[in-house]
Specification:
Blueprint (H helix, E strand, L loop, with lengths): L1 E2 L5 E2 L4 E4 L3 E4 L2 H11 L7 E5 H4 L6 H5 L4 E7 L12 E5 L15 E8 L2
Antiparallel strand pairs: 1-2, 3-4, 5-8, 6-7, 6-8
Length: about 120
Amino acid sequence: MVENEKKYTVEPNNTNKKINLGRTFLGARNLYKWMLKTFPITNVNSIVLKQSDGGINGANFRSLLGTNQGIYILIPKDASSSGFGASGHAGIYTTPDLTHYYFGATGGVESITLWKLN
């Protein structure tokens, strides 16, 4: 186990130590599991969406997330090379967009979770 300066425990098996960056998570699913354990989901601190919430090609996700900002993790239904091609996508969700959020992920979206930052 590794603790950072805020005393949040990080599992070294799911991370990679990078020079000058502390620990970097290996895959969005590993970060997602750590976030769930460290910052449990509540109605106040997060928004959780499923593929059925997104409508056609994820068109409804943006309006459902609204102007909230925070840590955003998308878990795809199909992470294979013929699907999304990755375990997911994690980043900072902002309005206006500063990155791509993959709402229309190839193979579908299992879930989108936003931990709100105030």
